[in-house]
Design goal:
By secondary structure, the protein is mainly beta. Helices cover about 5% and strands about 40% of the residues.
Length: about 200
Amino acid sequence: MNKVFTFIFISFLVCCSVKDQKSYRKINEEDYHKFGVADTLLDKPDVLVTGLKEDNSQLLLRIKRKAGIDYYKLDPDCVIENDSTIIAYAEAFKYEPGDGGFQKNGIWFYARFYSDENKKGNFIYSTSDTGIQFSVDSIPASAKSIALPNSEGIYFYEKDALIRLSREQSEDQFNALQKNGFYFIPNSGRLFKRIDIHSIK
């Protein structure tokens, strides 16, 4: 690894893949009513989104269709973006409190992709089951002078600059990059996918 980089190792990320897992589960009407409703977040003729009485940050979804009404419980990391879109956040990057230099206006981390053929051997980063090794609290030595972006996307550090490799800030897009090095995820510092409410089955 290039010696020009300085690493701050406080803790290591163990990233859990949500690939191929749904961000919601279908429930029956009886269970839907058992959860209880706290607040109504979206009320349209065909879509109702409410918070759970026991945990208002977790959402219930009711969709009216021609064939009847379907009920869903959304994962805790889901939020409503607008009247037709849900944002489902991937697992948050985990770290121990430190000087915070790696988490200003987003989050920095180092990622190394590997295949089954070369995943053996010692490597200082924690390993996830996605085929990626991470250090969430690492930052390039010269990165502190870089203007950090606020536009959505996945940014890669190269030649003393941040280059946007993807406009989509999703876990699937990140996993497809297969590029070792430093990354910056702006704003919330989280990967996420957008789900059209009417596409939910």
